[in-house]
Design goal:
The complex is a heterodimer of chains A (about 80) and B (about 400).
Chain A (H helix, E strand, L loop, with lengths): L4 E6 L9 H5 L4 E4 L2 E4 L3 E3 L2 H9 L5 E5 L5 E3 L3
Antiparallel strand pairs in A: 1-4, 1-5, 2-3, 5-6
Chain B lengths: L8 E2 L12 H8 L4 E4 L5 E5 L2 H9 L3 E2 L28 H9 L5 H5 L2 H18 L3 E2 H6 L1 H11 L6 H11 L7 H24 L5 H10 L6 H14 L2 H16 L1 H9 L4 H11 L10 E3 L3 E3 L2 E3 L4 E4 L1 H4 L34 H18 L4 E2 L21 E3 L1
Helix pairs in contact in B: 5-7, 5-16, 8-9, 9-11, 12-13, 12-16, 14-16
């Protein structure tokens, strides 16, 4: 299980509004004006955030560890 | 809130004609009505036709696909869907499966396949040109391109295409085949994929099917039935849709001279033109897969009660005048085009980026190669298939 704090960001220029993130994880993502947006910019680590980020067809969701900026998702 | 019983309308409203959308959808949408329809099987359902309602039904977790599994729900297809696949799952099960392959279908990864798609198309067009006019662009281009691409991604032998094409065609029928033939198509696909899975246990591969076998055998991330049905879904969805839309888009261009001229004069409009044809071409002959409300939800002022079925009509949502100016017209110069041809929410088409790539390369290349491309028969003689879930041409006879 993941721990620590994560920063969640969506690149609004890349997002196509597919709705995959908000459907996969309504706890962490919502649609605003048709485009994906994080419910909170900083969250407790949770694998569900990674699942949503990895399901984005545009790889528009960037999840990083707070403090270290280490990329949690997407990874190759 | 509406409580008056308006009576259910028999559905479909009419038999699909070519690429025409029955005007009844637009009337319902523009009246702000949630329609009540009697489906060919399973009884009555609601039908969403507006952009907002369709997006809500597709995106809101209060509407379930899993609740339709194994149930005699209102639907177009004669058989009850009793095999779990990606399209009949809700989160979190759906997310668990989808993420196993999602990386292979991202924009970035699919873009890396563009040179290969171009090479395949160039080879197909070489053959067509060498043979001389007339040619059938369905057999010569629209089918072999997506079949080649999905075969290579999944690891399915291209030589088997006649076999799985026939099964797939029957599996997606509602009255073009008998119930026995439809069931035989589904069984054939399942047994075929089970065989390919077994091969990979003997000889591991690094194709997508190999990745899924590994996820099952080494990490226990999906069941055996899920694994086999995942393969079936990827193979069928990976070619039926794009193959038919390629033919449909070329039909639209060849039968609408001002659109063809616009695209030929402005080749930089290729990608927007593909998006616009995605918006305007109804892929389904009728409204898509049913969803079941898991709690009471109000749509367009009408109460949908928990347990009731809702159908969605994407093609009608894509013409909603509240979202798209002159929504019933094809306009390659449209600036804002948030169409939902690939669906919305968790079931947003996994292969959307691959479909876009294939459509762009196929349509762009065929126009480049044949500057004088035209139908080889009168337009009304270009044959459409009937009795199937998906619209498409039986053949596209062209000359140049």
């Amino acid at each position: 299980m993941a721990d620590g704090r994560w920063n969640v960001a969506i690149d609004s220029g890349t997002c196509i509004g597919s709705g995959v993130c908000a459907g996969t994880s309504p706890k962490y993502f919502k649609l605003d004006g048709g485009y994906g947006t994080p419910v909170a910019d900083e969250v407790d680590a949770d694998d569900e955030v990674v699942t949503a980020a990895e399901s984005c067809p545009m790889e528009a969701i960037l999840v990083r560890e707070v403090g270290t900026d280490k990329v949690i998702a997407p990874l190759d | 809130m509406t409580t008056v019983d308006r009576g259910a309308c028999p559905y479909p409203f009419s038999e699909a004609q070519g690429l025409e959308l029955d005007p009844e959808y637009g009337r319902l949408r523009d009246n702000g009505e949630l329609a009540r329809v009697r489906m060919p099987y399973g009884g009555e359902a609601w039908m969403a036709t507006s952009y907002e309602d369709v997006k809500t039904v597709l995106g809101d977790p209060r509407f379930s696909r899993a609740a339709t599994l194994g149930a005699d729900v209102p639907r177009m297809m004669p058989l009850i869907q009793n095999e779990t696949n990606l399209l009949t799952m809700d989160p979190p099960d759906h997310s668990r499966l989808r993420k196993l392959v999602a990386k292979a279908f991202t924009m970035r990864r699919i873009e890396m396949l563009r040179p290969r798609a171009q090479e395949v198309v160039d080879g197909l067009l070489d053959d067509i040109e060498a043979q001389g006019p007339p040619a059938d662009l369905v057999e010569g281009l629209a089918l072999p391109l997506p079949i080649t691409m999905i075969c290579e991604l999944l690891g399915v032998p291209y030589e088997d295409r006649d076999k799985f094409r026939a099964w797939s065609d029957a599996a997606l029928a509602f009255n073009a085949f008998t119930l026995e033939e439809i069931q035989a198509g589904r069984d054939g696909l399942r047994e075929y994929l089970a065989g390919l899975v077994a091969q990979r246990r003997e000889q591991p591969t690094d194709d997508l099917l190999g990745v899924l076998v590994q996820a099952r055998d080494e990490e226990d991330r999906l069941s055996e039935a899920e694994l086999v049905q995942f393969g079936v879904t990827l193979l069928v969805a990976g070619h039926e849709t794009t193959a038919n839309q390629t033919g449909n888009f070329l039909f639209t261009l060849l039968s609408t001279p001002h659109l063809l001229r616009d695209l030929r004069e402005n080749p930089e409009l290729l990608n927007p033109a593909i998006e616009e044809m995605l918006r305007m071409t109804p892929l389904g002959t009728a409204a898509g897969f049913p969803r079941i409300a898991t709690e009471d939800v109000v749509l367009s002022g009408t109460l949908v009660r928990a347990g009731e079925a809702v159908m969605t009509q994407l093609a009608s949502a894509n013409r909603d005048g509240g979202v798209f100016d002159h929504g019933d017209e094809i306009d390659f110069h449209r600036e804002n085009n948030p169409h939902i041809a690939f669906g919305h929410g968790v079931h947003h088409c996994l292969g959307a980026q691959l479909a876009r790539l294939e459509l762009q390369v196929a349509v762009g290349s065929v126009l480049n190669r044949f500057p004088d491309l035209r139908f080889a028969v009168p337009v009304e003689e270009v044959p459409f298939k009937t009795g199937r879930l998906i619209r498409g041409l039986r053949a596209l006879p062209v000359t140049w």
